[in-house]
């Protein structure tokens, strides 16, 4: 640990001596706390350590330490001074060669005692039960709130050293960009209130997606976030439908993309387009799709129960390739193997009996030999 003691207690000398701990190593230090002759001396090995880690002028480091000393010239505050100097030194040494020559070290980047008192007080005002995670520096925190339906929402806040002068950075898991309104009089309480207001705007959006998650076999995303706008839902005959919900108007006719064998997908697409005028915004999108397509979307399979739906590409055996799902499905309903279009192109080009016409490659399914095509 770091320690600082009077050099000559009996004479009342302003000089103090001690040890400064930097990353588990202690360095001898000596400082004069007299307001008229502030001075900080340290072991040469510590000077070399700072010099090697930081190419910034050593005078800037000295000025920084002297300025902090002026705020702690009262002997009662020397313990706080020692803690702050230790923090400053560890930050400088920890940065290493990443600090450039033209980057001055400013005292503004180190929060004051008032900063910590302010943050602790504001956290107390919103309630410590809302704190999910708190960084030891109090510069980053994750807060938790419940909406009106009991959903758990966690958002992160990053505070600047001059808080509340500079606006914090706030990340909220919602399907739209969160815009924080801020002034120098704002507090953490205002952040929480704005997050609650933003979250409440998407209540219907999440209700729609929760209905799909509850009653359908959702293939992806496997672990959706609050900002996820789409669901890929399994259907019969190796088909699936990718449903994109509009966060601003979740009950409107959504963008739907059917994935599967062409012989099974085309009738579904035609039926949806022909009866799109029957869409009733008083019903949930899932209910509308089932009514218009005249089918029941399969429920999620019970864990351990066999499922005929395949996600992995039959060539590379991965569900995704360069962010693209395996959406090229063999037209043979008995096969129904999915492929990435790019994987299928490479496979077909390597087969002697495949042929190319314009922007399409023709060949056979690697599993059942049914004719299959891939668009270039």
From TrEMBL:
Keyword set, alphabetical order: Metal-binding, Zinc, Zinc-finger
InterPro entries: Fancl, FANCL_C, FANCL_d2, FANCL_d3, FANCL_d3_sf, UBQ-conjugating_enzyme/RWD, Znf_RING, Znf_RING/FYVE/PHD
Domain RING-type: 313-369
SUPFAM superfamilies assigned to the protein according to its UniProt record, in alphabetical order: RING/U-box (SSF57850)
GO biological process: interstrand cross-link repair; protein monoubiquitination
GO cellular component, one term: Fanconi anaemia nuclear complex
Signal sequence segment: none
MF terms in GO: ubiquitin protein ligase activity; zinc ion binding
Identification of the protein by name: RING-type domain-containing protein
Lineage, uppermost ranks: Eukaryota, Sar, Rhizaria, Endomyxa, Phytomyxea
